[in-house]
Every structure is written in C-alpha cells, then in structure tokens.
Amino acid sequence: MTTWGLRLAKVVAVLALVFVAVGFTSVSSGERDGTVVRDRLAGQAVRLSLPSGDGEPKGIALWFHGQGGGADHRVDSPWLEALRRDGWVIASSDFHETSWGNEASTDDTRRLVEWAEEQTGLEVEMWVAGSMGGAVSLNALNFGVEPPPCWYGVKPAISLTQMDFVPGGRRFIAGAYDGVVPTERDPVRNLASLPLETRYRVVASKDDHWVLYDQNSERLIRSLTDLGAEVSLLPARGLHEDPSHWNAPDLLSFADTCLGGDTTLAAD
Questions:
Q1: pTM for the full model?
Q2: For range 19-37, the mean pLDDT
Q3: Structural domain total, the chain
Q4: DSSP notation for the chain
Q5: Does 42 score more than 80 pLDDT?
C-alpha cells in the first residue's frame, strides 16, 4: 500500500472510532453527501464536516463565524461546501457566539484545534474567518494558539472601537468585554504581533458600509506588508453582504497554496 493509501486508511480508522465514541448525525438538506461529527467542548457546540469522495483528505480548515453565528453558520453554504468537496475537513465552533475575540473565544479556538486534530489524525492547515471572525481568529493568533500556514479573511472586522455601523456591534462588543475593550484585545492595535510565517489573504470591498475598509482590511494589509509578511487582497464589490465576498474558486485556489500548490492568485 502506498504512503497516501496508508494515511487514508488511518483517517478512515480514526473516523470509525469517532462514530462509536461521539456519534454521527445523518446529513441534512444542506449536506448532500459526507458526514458531520458534533460534540460540545466547555459548553460550546463544535462540528466537523468531513470531506466527500474517496480521495486523500487534504487537511483541516477552521471556520470562524461572524457576529450572531454559531458552529453551523455558513458551513453548509456553497462557499464552504466547495472546500469540503475538494477534500477539506471543516471545523467550526460556537466561539461563544458574539464574543468578538475575547478570552473565552481564544480558549475555544485552542480546544477546537486540539479536538479536530485528535478526531481526524489530520493537521490544521488553514483558518478561514468571516467579519467578526476576523477579530476572533487574530486574537487567537496573538494569544498563543499555534498559527496555521494560511489565514483567509473575508471582510475581517478587527477594529473593535470602530464598529458603530455594524448593527448591534457596539452593544455586543461591550457585552463581550464588560464594557471596555482592553488594548491588547483590539486586533487592529496589535497587528505587529501577528505571526509572519503565516500567509494571509483578504477579501474585502471598499464600499463596505458596516466594516469600513480603511479602518479594518486596509490597516491589516498595510501592517502585514510593512512587516514583510506574505499578504494579498481579492477586491470584492458592494456592501457588506454582497455575494462577491464569497468567492469559492478563490478560496480553493488559496487553499491549494497552503499545501504547496501554485501560489499564483487573482491580482490585487
């Protein structure tokens, strides 16, 4: 048996044990094939969406949901489904829902990484963040969670004192931080601490009316560029919820680069 075959057999065996220990849920209407593993870690729902097909699993991608989401948010959308169908395991968590990157969400990230790798025998290769998930993921990077090879942020919301246009944003952020965001927990003020070995990709629109481009994505890109990190931008169009943000071909192309594929991506 080839090395690839042995690795696939190992993953299948591990997942068989998960079936016994945790239990699988049958696929729902949003999951036309493949299987979902569910559990709870420290009170938070967690989920693994396993890849379909018989090919070699590529790795684990952590998904960080936006404000008001949970472990199921967008996981069954065509955008993330494309990643799963391409051989990726999608790991997600409630992340304390409207946590905005507080300490609890960092602990959630650490637990999710450990759980997902233990259950599958694979490694986390990429983090994917949407909106508020930008703050959750960048704070996890700045507070000791092992950095992934790649980070993909869609309209990342990282300036926690400048979220007045996000519906409910000011209220939810105040609730997540007992009224005041500590300086060290405001990602936009700690960009210099981000790991430079990680490769970054940002998808954002300059017309975003909630998560303002110049206060969030632009500052992230400029800081990472100045520090010498590898960072690229895919311009989206329109307002915050414009469908152009959810570009499945670009997500798949970037994911391939995380595994040593062609690093040519769409031009800025």
A1: 0.87
A2: 43
A3: 1
A4: --HHHHHHHHHHHHHHHHHHHT-EEPP-TT-SSS-EEEEEETTEEEEEEPPPSSSPP-EEEEEE--TT--TTTTTTSHHHHHHHHTTEEEEEE-TTSS-TT-HHHHHHHHHHHHHHHHHHS--EEEEEEETTHHHHHHHHHHTTPPPPSEEEEES----TTS-TTSTTHHHHHHHHTTT---GGG-GGG-GGGS-TTSEEEEEE-TT-SSS-GGGTHHHHHHHHHHHT--EEEEE--SSTT-GGG--HHHHHHHHHHHTT--------
A5: yes
